[in-house]
Structures are given as structure tokens and as C-alpha cells.
Amino acid sequence: MDRTVQREKLRARQEKIEARIRAACERSGRRREEVTIVAVTKYVDTDAIGDLLAAGIRHIGENRVQDALPKYNVFGQDGIWHFIGHLQTNKVKDVVGKFTYIHSLDRVSLAAEIDKRAKALGIVVPCFVQINVAEEETKFGLRPKDVLAFFAETSNMSHIRIIGLMTMAPQVDDPEEARPVFRGLREWRERIRELPYGNLAVEELSMGMSGDFEVAIEEGATFIRLGSVLVKDEEES
Fold first, then answer.
1. What is the pLDDT, as a whole number, of residue 235?
2. Where are the domains of the chain?
3. What are phi and psi of 208, to 5 degrees?
4. DSSP 131
5. How far apart are CA 224 and CA 222, in angstroms?
6. Please, which residues have CB within 8 angstroms of residue 93's CB and are 6 or more apart in sequence?
7. How far apart are CA 68 and CA 61, in angstroms?
8. In the 3-class helix/strand/coil scheme, how is 99-116 assigned residue by residue?
9. CA triplet 208, 164, 147: central angle to 5 degrees?
10. CB atoms within 10 A of CB 209
């Protein structure tokens, strides 16, 4: 399809999404500026990322290192890149120094590897700790019972900066069913803010996807991860 047509369709989708975000912010007494869209681009090609950047969407989220790197090599300097998928320890070397944010920090061994790579590069990596609030067997993330121990064990890692928390809600037909999960993550943020560790600045909440982002915003999301609702035509979603 012609790129001009693609970009027109993208702008139409943006307008609809913006209206929904603003309405969710109004319902919850929040400002629109508090919510950042991360475009999830795992199912689109490199040209589509160019379309997103041209439309003013700066934040690009990728799930798989091997799929992301060819896209990053083309547009890496033009956007702000988020690694949002499960990160294998042996792939950290390909992520640190390229992706500004890592949303899926979920174990001490991964934190140690990120810290080591960041130290070698002389940088500090902003990370979200992934919590499996719903305790789904098929999802990654820290179980609630392990959260406090994780923060204690990583408190001396000076080259990671834990800026927020991330979760994935169960896939449900009614987005309202996801609300307790999003509320649970927000409650974890309030609890973690009280911890006395120097590498914590837990302000952000990465939660909400195409099917439930409005509820996530109402519960405090600051980063929403939008894939199909943004990058596909409605009839393809």
C-alpha cells in the first residue's frame, strides 16, 4: 500500500486513540501530559516505524531483540526505544546502550547483567520492574511474594535506575476485569516508594495495552503499550 495512504490511516487511528486517552484522563482527574504512548511494533516492518515517527510518535516498543535490531539500525537515532519483552540474560549486551528503557526487569540475575553492561558503558539504565500481579502461570514477572526481596538484593546496583513498575493484565473480554490488576500495581508503587534504597525513583507505571488502556489510565498508567489499535487497521485488529 502507498505510504501516503498508510500515514493517513495512521493519523485517523491516532485521532481516535487521542480522544479515548483524553476522556480517560478527564474521568480520573489527570492531565493528558501524564500519559505516554509506546507504539508496540513487533508485528510491523521498518517502513511502518518510519510512519509512526513521521506522525510524531517518538516512543517505540519492541519485544524481541533479533527482530528489533534491524529496525533500530535504521531508526535508532530518531526515536526513544523501549525493550518491553522478556529479556534473556545473554541478549542484554544487544539491548543496553541502544534501548533507553527496559520494561521487563524480573529477576536478580538479569539486573546484575544489566548493571554490569551499563557500568562498562558508563551509563545508568532506567528500568521498570515487572510484577506478575495476577500471578498467571503463563506470564513472566516477579510474584508478589518475591518483590521486596528483589529490591533488597538489587539495592547496591548503581548502574540501573528503577523508575517504575510494569505489569500485564490477563486477556479478558471486559476491560473492567483488568482493573484490580492495574490498581494492584499502583498500590505496589506506593509501597515501594517507602523503601530506603538509593537506586529507586519509582514514579512510572507501564500498564495497559490495546484492549484495556483506558482502564489502565484511570488507575494511574503513565506509559501505555499500544500495538494493534495503533499500527493496524481496525478490520485487521
1. 37
2. 3-232
3. 100, 130
4. B
5. 7
6. 117
7. 9
8. ECEEEEECCHHHHHHHHH
9. 100
10. 19
Chain segment 152-169, per-residue pLDDT in tens: 999 999 999 999 999 999
- Give the SS3 label for residue 125: strand
Tell if the pTM clears 0.90, that is, is over it.
Answer: yes
**Host H or E run for residue 214:** helix 213-218
Q: Which helix (H) or strand (E) holds 128?
A: strand 125-130
DSSP state of 142: B
Q: How many angstroms separate the CA atoms of 151 and 132, rounded? A: 15
Task: Could you please state the CATH topology (level 3) that the domain comprising 3-232 is classified under.
Answer: TIM Barrel (3.20.20)
Q: Are 224 and 175 in contact (CB under 8 A)?
A: no
> For the chain, what percent of residues have pLDDT higher than 70?
97
Q: What is the pLDDT of residues 54-73, one digit of tens each?
A: 999 999 999 999 999 999 99
The residue count for the chain: 237
Residues 154 and 137: their CA atoms lie apart, in Å, by 24
Per-residue pLDDT reduced to its tens digit, 73-86: 999 999 999 999 99
More confident position, 236 or 58: 58
Buried b (16+ CB within 10 A) or exposed e, 75-102: beeebebbbbbebeeebbebbbeebebb
